[in-house]
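Sharing a chain and its predicted structure for anyone who wants a worked example. Both blocks are below, sequence first, tokens second.
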Amino acid sequence: MNGTDLVVVGSGVAGLYAALTAAVRGLDATLLTKDALADSNSWYAQGGLSAVGPAGAAAGDSIASHIADTLTAGAHLNDADAVAIMCSTAWGHVTRLIEAGARFDTDDSGSFALGLEAAHAHPRILHAGGDATGKGLAGALINACRTQQAAGRLRIREHAFVTELLTEANPSARAQRDPAAVVTGVRVRGTDGQHEDLFAKAVLLATGGAGQLFAATTNPLGATGDGAALAYRAGAALADAEFIQFHPTLVSPGGFMVSEAVRGEGAVLIDGHGERFMVKVHPDAELAPRDVVARAIHAVRANGGTVHLDARGVEATHGPGFLARRFPSITAELSKLGWDLAAEPVPVTPAAHYWMGGILTNDTGATTLPGLYAAGEAACTGVHGANRLASNSLLEGLVFAWRTVANLPANPPGATAAGSAPMNVIVTHPAAAGDADDADLRARGEAPEEMELSALQALAQAHLGVERTAQGLRTALAQLARWRVTTGDRASHERANLLEVAKLIATAALNRENSLGAHYRSDAPEAPRPLNGHLPRYAQVPATTNLNLRISSLV
């Protein structure tokens, strides 16, 4: 079968970096993105890139400290080996980014300006353009990819929406061991509505998260869980689906996120009485892990109160104009909404921000399906555990996108590598609650309902949010089972993807009858007990997929 070496789907930093790495290494690669190259979560990332370099080490920071902070924030559910790989190789990728044209902020002495964010023991956050790091990094990578395209070493196709993974029988399948299918390419829907099949030796999904599942989200409109839904339908395992990070400070009303870096500079959270409340919640107050801060804000609002972000003290300490210089994009966007960060407290609410779950991979990007790889937010490497440490997302996307491409020659087509590293994962099949077919519904006297996006978002906001209960999750699953999406145009495919992801998240949240990190069950607040000395992680595969003990035997 003719085809390219690699198809990369998605144009955030993971997809761009993978495509660039493939082109530089001489692979025949194609980069697909459903909108323009700049339409990604990465582009809008205000926060920075965490990495310990020579200057940080000289000031007392260390890779070991970065590892420890990542594990602590992740409630030690992390894959410790993957965390060590990410933190120890971080600075090498900073160097590669600079070589690709990225420019990081410096101080008056010309040294990198290192910021401090929540749950980091040391300042180790690199920024670009103050609060436009994502735009700076993605922009540099886009330019580098365009250069490769102009030289004939990379194909780029914008406005190409992938609706299906192509599979065929796996020639190396062994009974009770390997999946029966191997991924051979993608089906692409163009702007004219026509479909085209693209074949490849390897497909790398770097499609980002699923923030549009929620009514309140920091994510752009394109974050519709496409990669996770595509992979799951094809038979791949999805892991840690219950863990969704809610960013504490979405401006409400307005829908604009204020970076955690503002709190890193000293901004505080106050209630309707003007009192700080985080000092009573956590020793690190406003710089506590995001799940702690989000739940505290949620609790105040759930009791009828309001919460504001107050940065007036920061401006007073550093002098007039400091916030505008340090956070130019945030200042400009807030001004459009009628807020002046330097002069008044700004109303905030928690919002869906980052999904720690996703397509289960090992540390070289391989999924449980031969021929299929994943990187960035679409993937679940285990790095983030139960809660992502601030500014580790751009880093994870870069590190594991590079490792995926660099290791492709070592992963021959037809082989599966997801069981090659101990991931402490138990594979389950989703409960039937989310999988009732039309006949089942009619037998109960119910009819399938066409799902509207607003209804799904309202349901997710109510039952899959900052706090969850078994009753609410069962209510959600019952409704999700009744909904259908008739696919045709792109928007309908995106709704179908979000519906698929919602079922997986709700099922995982119901099955984890404890609270850990970003997953909080108010009816089961206790932490999980270790299994064989480790906190268990869970993955879901379709009932038709035969993975058996390929991964769960490693527990």
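Comments welcome. DSSP finds 16 helices and 22 strands in the chain.
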